[in-house]
Amino acid sequence: MSPLRLRQVHKAMTRPLHIGLLGAMPEEIGSGLSHLKQRSSTHHGDLTLHQGVWGDGVRLILAWSGWGKVCAARAATRLLAAAPNLDLLLFTGVAGAADDALQQWDVVLADAVMQHDMNASPLFPRFTLPPLNRDLLQPDPDWLAWASRSLDAAQTAGELKGFGAIRPGLIATGDQFIGDAAVLQELKAALPDLQAVEMEGGAVAQVAEQEAVPWLVLRVISDGADEAAAQSFSDFVHVYDQRAWSLIEALLKRLSAR
Length: 258
What we know:
By secondary structure, the chain is α/β, with parallel strands linked by helices. The protein has one domain (3-257): Rossmann fold (3-Layer(aba) Sandwich). 33% of the residues lie in helices and 27% in strands. The protein is built from six helices and nine strands, in the order H-E-E-E-E-H-E-E-H-E-H-E-H-E-H. Strands 5-8-7-6-9 form a five-stranded mixed beta barrel. Strand 6, helix 3 and strand 7 form a beta-alpha-beta unit. The radius of gyration is 17 Å and the shape is globular. The model has no long low-confidence stretch (mean pLDDT 90).
């Protein structure tokens, strides 16, 4: 068992699990606040952190970060400072499909993330994050395996009505809403395994990695990252608001099986 996993097991034996939850927009977490007991909030400028208890004792701290890498990194940093003993940081929301096989409502659980707009060449290879000297960031394998099992079990049990196929894959983050097929093709040429594109997950993962906190990025496909992306995205998020919490709850209710 890895040292990180040993620390997680020890913490789980001594106190309730503490989960951090971030999304760029309220619609990406849905009705989360209504499910929290003992709720409290703290304000940091225009960022609000909400804390409470879910179910039989799982502690949750959640926030809506705003769009883009800077907002996401700021929110993750504030959240981790407010909850220094966090067991897992989960970023969830919607994304554009990079793989033609993906359809609206399919779910991608990142087995790796990267920042497609990071380029410090010639000092470092394209995509490499200088502080970590890596391009791909990968979540803790135990947490990833638990999330994958949990989502599969929830889908089999009929708890994820309206969602499509669930698959692992590479998600790329950048400060760009991709709605141009030519831009997407260039990225796919550089990253043949790319599944989805979005604007926050890779930044949250970097903060979590540098703070030694386990993380996951979970995305639901909203559009094809092409010329129709803006309209598809706008229409999609209105409906997604009604379903988002069921995806999160599918994970929370299976924490005891991690």
